[in-house]
Write a structure and sequence with these properties.
Layout: H1 9-16, H2 20-27, H3 40-50, E1 56-62, H4 68-74, E2 77-85, H5 88-97, E3 105-110, E4 122-126, H6 139-149, E5 150-161, H7 169-187, H8 201-210, E6 213-219, E7 233-240
Parallel strand pairs: 1-2, 1-4, 2-3, 4-5
Antiparallel strand pairs: 5-7, 6-7
Helix pairs in contact: 1-2, 3-4, 6-8
């Protein structure tokens, strides 16, 4: 799973016993050489699906990590790209990894996605592989924050993969990982929130609509279909169509 340039077992253990923020600070220098980084195939597929929905002026990579999503945005946005993350270590890697080359301006902001230190200045917000760090009860607040930084008509887009079926090895691997994390968090502080099976598409779509989004699903054809004909991967595209619930001034 991890190559010789990736983190050692000891390094992973230290990360797992840290807070989420501290853990990613420690992992940042080797993060791109782990399976936790979003694969290029997913990034390229999302970029291809979003291109016809543009043009976009300003984009935000939410929970940007080492900047893979921000790199995608540099090919979709004409004016500016911003990456936001709460890990200083991940942002430091991103600054060196994503360098402007005559395209949009690129900026990096340290901040919590649940309380974004940004204004409504974006036409497109993307996020890759970060939602396992949010508990289900945090989704309403998270989506309200995203809504608040989008201009009217702006879009929030992220890929979702179809969950493996119980007959597949992947199902039991994810179940085992989540179980280990729950035991770890019951016995150790600070908690490390990372649950692969807590982000359920039906709940997510409902919460996006409550936050003031109109939601669409787009199949990502590069990943094919399951035996029942459903897509293996989809792109959720949520468009800001109305003020957030309870806020008539948004």
């Amino acid at each position: 799973m991890f190559g010789p340039e990736g983190p050692s077992l000891r390094e992973l253990a230290v990360q797992a016993l840290s807070s989420v923020e501290r853990g990613y600070d420690l992992l940042a220098p080797k993060f791109d050489r782990t399976p936790f980084r979003t694969p290029d195939s997913v990034l390229e597929s999302v970029a291809k699906a979003l291109a016809p929905l543009g043009p976009f002026a300003d984009g935000l990579d939410l929970c940007c990590g080492t900047g893979a999503g921000a790199q995608v945005l540099t090919g979709l946005c004409r004016h500016s790209v911003t990456g936001v993350d709460f890990s200083a270590g991940m942002l430091d890697v991103a600054r060196h990894r994503v360098r402007p080359t005559g395209g949009p301006e690129v900026a990096w902001v340290r901040g919590d996605a649940r309380a974004l230190p940004l204004r409504a200045a974006f036409d497109l917000v993307v996020s890759f592989g970060a939602f396992g760090h949010f508990l289900p009860r945090e989704l309403p607040g998270l989506f309200t924050e995203v809504h608040s930084v989008l201009r009217p008509g702006g879009r929030f887009a992220f890929p979702v993969l179809a969950p493996p079926r119980p007959t597949r090895t992947g199902y039991w691997m994810l179940l085992g990982f989540d179980t280990v994390m729950r035991v770890r968090n019951a016995l150790w502080r600070p908690p490390f929130v990372m649950y692969y099976r807590a982000f359920r598409l039906g709940t997510v779509l409902d919460e996006l609509e409550r936050a003031g989004f109109g939601v669409g699903l787009h199949a990502l054809p590069e990943f094919g279909r399951r035996d029942d004909g459903s897509p293996r991967a989809r792109l959720v595209v949520a468009r800001r169509t109305q003020p957030a619930a309870g806020n008539v001034n948004s």
